[in-house]
């Protein structure tokens, strides 16, 4: 990695740790191997060149196996797979990332889920991934326009993950997914399931707000190129979290995960599979805000009941009856 790249990663890691401290976090999970490595005198550490310092970063391997290694190929980290490598190459060597979600450039990342990470390994792998995403400039136009990278929020140990499309203006301002009007509706849906935002994980296909030059509000759909470029971050999030169920919110989320679909109206309510993980496609909460009909609300609710059943969550009679005309 170049010195500039190293400093950028270091800055991002420090910024991330500072922001956790501002939020009252007093401890971070670090793998015991990384801790041992950090405690060794600097002169004794492997190699003269600085490598990434983000907790759990694959760049410190083999000293910091916070990243799981495949038994059959011990030298290769399985978890933060390709994107780490792609990002660390100088720009000139980087392959152009212009492919849609289902293209071969993205597909190799979909394989080899590896073994599940321990809770501490998950924390450090996710912190390292977040640090990389926060300084990402692969879409220069989005990086120039954004106020925040909207990485993801919630419990990385949750069995349930929601995937949306892209941040809007509110999310861009706050750096958190689903906090605007549609987000508040999503929060109510999650609460109606008997959960809370802090008990699930929420992320988007795109981590930056799709820019709308000359406008401070309004949204646009991400382009296939933007989606293909950003998708590796979501794939790594999924590989780290290993949710038991993913809810794909709206057509763009379904397309991002599954490639082209017949449209959300046909896809919703039917289980799909993404890398062995069951995916429930449903309408986007923004669509529910535009279409207030009881029938459409009930369809989304039926999808959530199916998710609750799949997860073995308790379902009350009252919950079963929501949005049914009596
Ligand atoms: N819509 C989305 O798809 N994601 C957000 O984070 C907010 C609105
Ligand atoms: N139209 C949309 O834009 N989103 C949906 O989820 C459904 C219909």
Task: Please outline the helices and strands.
Blueprint: H1 3-22, H2 32-39, E1 69-70, E2 73-77, H3 82-88, H4 119-134, H5 140-145, E3 153-154, E4 160-164, H6 169-174, H7 181-192, E5 201-204, H8 224-241, E6 245-249, H9 250-258, H10 264-267, E7 272-274, E8 277-282, H11 285-290, H12 294-311, H13 317-321
Helix pairs in contact: 1-4, 4-8
The chain binds uracil (URA) (2 copies).
Give helix and strand order, one letter per element, not per position.
HHEEHHHEEHHEHEHHEEHHH
The CATH first-level class of one domain comes to Alpha Beta
Q: Give the class from helix and strand content and strand pairing.
A: alpha/beta
Q: What ions, cofactors and ligands are bound?
A: uracil
The geometry reads as globular
Number of strands: 8
Q: Kindly state the percentage of residues in helix.
A: 40-55%
- The name CATH uses for the topology of one domain is Uracil-DNA Glycosylase, subunit E
**What's the pLDDT, averaged over the residues?**
78
| CATH homology superfamily name of one domain | Uracil-DNA glycosylase-like domain
Strand content: 5-15%
State the helix count: 13
Main sheet: which strands, in order across? 3-5-4-6-8-7
Distance between the termini: 64 Å
Radius of gyration: 20 Å
CATH architecture of one domain, please?
3-Layer(aba) Sandwich
Largest sheet: 6 strands, mixed
Low-confidence stretches: 45-112
């Amino acid at each position: 990695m170049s010195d500039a790249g190293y400093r950028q990663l270091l800055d991002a890691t420090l910024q991330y740790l500072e922001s956790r401290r501002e939020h009252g976090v007093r401890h971070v999970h670090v793998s015991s191997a990384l801790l041992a490595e950090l405690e060794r005198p600097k002169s004794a550490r492997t190699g003269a060149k600085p490598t990434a310092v983000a907790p759990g970063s694959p760049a410190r391997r083999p000293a910091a196996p916070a990243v799981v290694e495949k038994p059959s190929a011990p030298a290769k980290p399985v978890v933060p797979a390709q994107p780490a490598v792609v990002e660390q190459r100088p720009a000139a060597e980087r392959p152009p990332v212009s492919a849609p979600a289902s293209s071969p450039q993205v597909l190799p990342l979909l394989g080899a889920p590896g073994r599940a990470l321990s809770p501490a390994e998950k924390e450090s792998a996710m912190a390292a991934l977040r640090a990389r995403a926060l300084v990402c400039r692969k879409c220069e136009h989005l990086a120039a326009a954004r106020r925040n990278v909207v990485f993801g929020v919630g419990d990385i140990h949750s069995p349930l993950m929601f995937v949306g499309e892209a941040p809007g203006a509110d999310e861009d301002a706050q750096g958190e997914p689903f906090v605007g009007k549609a987000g508040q509706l999503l929060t109510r849906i999650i609460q109606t399931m008997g959960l809370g935002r802090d008990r699930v994980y929420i992320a988007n296909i795109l981590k930056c707000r799709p820019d709308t030059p000359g406008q401070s509000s309004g949204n646009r759909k991400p382009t296939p190129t933007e989606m293909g470029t950003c998708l590796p971050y979501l794939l790594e999030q999924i590989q780290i979290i290993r949710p038991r169920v993913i809810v794909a919110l709206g057509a763009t989320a379904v397309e991002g995960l599954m490639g082209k679909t017949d449209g959300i109206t046909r896809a919703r309510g039917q289980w799909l599979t993404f890398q062995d993980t069951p995916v429930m496609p449903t309408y986007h909460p923004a669509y529910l805000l535009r279409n207030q009909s009881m029938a459409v609300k009930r369809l989304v609710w039926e999808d959530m009941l199916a998710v609750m059943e799949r997860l073995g969550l308790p379902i009350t009679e009252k919950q079963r009856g929501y949005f049914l005309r009596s």
